[in-house]
Specification:
Layout lengths: L1 E2 L6 H11 L8 H7 L36 H19 L1 H9 L2 E5 L2 H8 L5 H4 L2 H21 L4 E5 L8 H6 L8 H24 L4 E5 L1 H10 L14 E2 L14 E2 L16 H13 L5 E2 L3 H6 L1
Parallel strand pairs: 1-2, 2-3, 3-4
Antiparallel strand pairs: 4-7, 5-6
Helix pairs in contact: 1-11, 3-4, 7-9
């Protein structure tokens, strides 16, 4: 299982997903490279290329303070390296057969939308929201086609969540602390375009199967009906400092809540483990309300 990084802590969710199917947690690619020597090969049970803060656009990382994420294009280069290694290990036919049964989780895009609506962003002066969303989808389509060239056949592709309800966005709305509805609107528009693109790509690549994960609907249901899922707090982070515990990240001196299981958000961006568990269950076992045209269990069996 290979993962691309995103704001919503999908590294954690990929780990939970691996456990759900009885596989070891996919180790980070760079840790494998640093320990790889001579004839040591990459594991055939999975590799993670995930990098927190990455976006569909290579420039997205530059809009955040850390500026340390691995760009998506570089992640795909790493994927090609693993593909070549598997061919060398197993032979071309066996490697392709193995990859055709593997899941490739591609979870990215939230940071791009957040970057557009980030306070002080110059993007609205350079490109319209519609042009930006269209370019995101076109760029991701090219990435998926490249991955297909490297043997990927079963994709778990996540739409982006209600990023306007991230605590970083709520905190910008000083008067009401409500969600940024404009950011949410364009999250929905991106997701609609992404679903359409995947349907078209499936018709181009007959041997491709996919599960589109409706992250927006899943996390919106946590926020709108918290008690249904065992949550109490949907506006404030469990760990952080300042208003909503969202002005300063979860640093060592930050305060944290007494019960993280009743919070949707761990910090100003990421969900708690409780929310992540519910998310993974919906993705694997849920109806087409949450994953389409099939859920992940159905994709595994396809």
């Amino acid at each position: 299982m290979c993962c691309s990084g995103d704001y919503d802590s999908y590294v954690l969710e990929c780990c939970l997903a691996a456990e759900k199917v009885g596989l070891p947690i996919s180790p980070p690619y760079l840790s494998l490279v640093s320990n790889k020597s001579g004839s040591n090969a990459f594991p055939i049970t999975g590799v993670s290329f995930a990098s927190g803060g990455a976006g569909i656009f290579n420039s997205t990382d530059q809009r955040y303070a850390s500026r340390q994420s691995i760009p998506l294009t570089k992640q795909v280069e790493y994927d090609s390296t693993v593909y070549e290694d598997l061919v060398q290990q197993l032979g071309s036919a066996t490697a392709l057969d193995h990859l055709s049964k593997s899941l490739f989780a591609v979870v990215i895009g939230s940071n791009d939308i957040l970057g557009y609506f980030k306070s002080g962003s110059d993007l609205p002066k350079k490109i319209t929201q519609q042009q930006y969303v269209d370019l995101m989808v076109m760029t991701l389509k090219d990435v998926l086609k490249r991955m297909h060239n490297f043997g990927s056949r079963k994709f778990v592709v996540a739409g982006i969540g209600a990023v306007g309800c991230c605590l970083s966005q709520r905190n910008q709305n000083k008067t009401s602390e409500e969600c940024n509805e404009e950011a949410n609107y364009w999250s929905v528009k991106y997701n609609e375009s992404l679903k359409s693109m995947l349907q078209g790509l499936k018709s181009e690549l007959n041997d491709m199967d996919y599960s589109y994960v409706d992250t927006y609907t899943i996390f919106s249901s946590f926020i709108q009906s918290p008690s249904t899922y065992g949550f109490i707090e949907v506006k404030s982070a469990c760990c952080g400092l300042g208003n909503l515990r969202a002005q300063v990240p979860c640093v060592p001196v930050a305060k944290y809540c007494s019960n993280r299981s009743d919070h949707v958000f761990w910090d100003l961006y990421h969900p708690t483990e409780a929310a992540a568990h519910l998310f993974v269950n919906a993705v694997f076992d849920g109806s087409q309300q949450f994953a389409m045209p099939m859920n992940v269990n159905q994709l595994i069996a396809a």
